[in-house]
Known about the structure:
The protein has helices spanning about 5-45, 50-80, 85-95, 100-110, 115-124. By secondary structure, the protein is an all-alpha fold. It has a domain at about 55-124. Helix 3 (about 85-95) packs across helix 4 (about 100-110), helix 3 (about 85-95) packs parallel to helix 5 (about 115-124) and helix 4 packs across helix 5 (about 115-124). The termini are far apart. It comes from Drosophila mauritiana (Fruit fly). It holds the Pfam family UBA_HYPK. InterPro entries: Huntingtin-int_K, HYPK_UBA, NAC-like_UBA. This is Huntingtin-interacting protein K.
Amino acid sequence: MTEAAEINGREEVEDDEQDQKQKKSDVKRHDDGAADLERVTDYAEEKEISADNISSAVEQFGNQRNKENELRVAKEKELQKVQVKKEDIELIMNELLVSKAHAEKVLREQSGDVVAALEAIISN
């Protein structure tokens, strides 16, 4: 054998050995990942969720939503009591190019104060 063929042969053997080591490393990583996944799924299976807990949580969400709705309705009723001028609503609509509903809502929230309503819309 020539010296070049001998070197190429050694390089091929070394490459094959490196490929085998890489494959073993990949298999080991895969096995470790599978083991981790198995531990996680085992834990999830051990932890049981009862129907009572779920219904209790749903009931709490429903109660919270009802309270928020009641507060929103009460706030809207309070805002409806505030007197606003049609001219003020139109001024806000024309100057800031907002809808009538938005202009009226902000004006009511600011107790009919046009300047405060303009500042509130601009700051948001």
